[in-house]
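Example record

The entry below shows one chain as it appears in the dataset: sequence first, then structure tokens.
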Amino acid sequence: MPNKPPPRCTACGEPQSVVRTTTEYPESGLDNVQLVNVPVWQCPNGHQELQVPAADQLHALLTDMVLRKPAKLTGQEIRFLRKELGMTLREFGGRVGMTDVHLSRIETGNRRMISSTTNLLVRLTVAWELTRQDRIPFPRDLEPVVDALEQTWDIGRHRLRHRDGTPPDRQWEQAIP
């Protein structure tokens, strides 16, 4: 079986060889991710092309690291998590109780701080959605919290019924659909 020729550089056409190096990973959408000992195809002219082995595993680990970091999430991290879920601004915003415009402002850095409540809600929502997609196991002790949150995601109409001839403090009740 003859040896396969090395791949050619897409910038200059020269043959490439693999080197292992530490490099930034801007393709993640995060500006603070470095990949260590990652294979990179390099030509004699210095052009480099990153080869990301096991990209799904890499993104799963990065998602876990972002979710577990002790500091509040940044806008970039929220966008990364949302995209990992495959959700639009509108879908994810609806899950965490904000408009797509407000979420976009957070993700782009036009709104710098998020509240502690929003920070927690984003993390819980992402963890819950990842479990629904069978990508991670969900901690059992958090299930009641998420069940309560999930009930609020699509409330629809609030229906109330007025009851005539009842005491003033009991004239209204929830109308069951």
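Notes for this example: The chain is about 40% helix and 15% strand. The mean pLDDT is 84.
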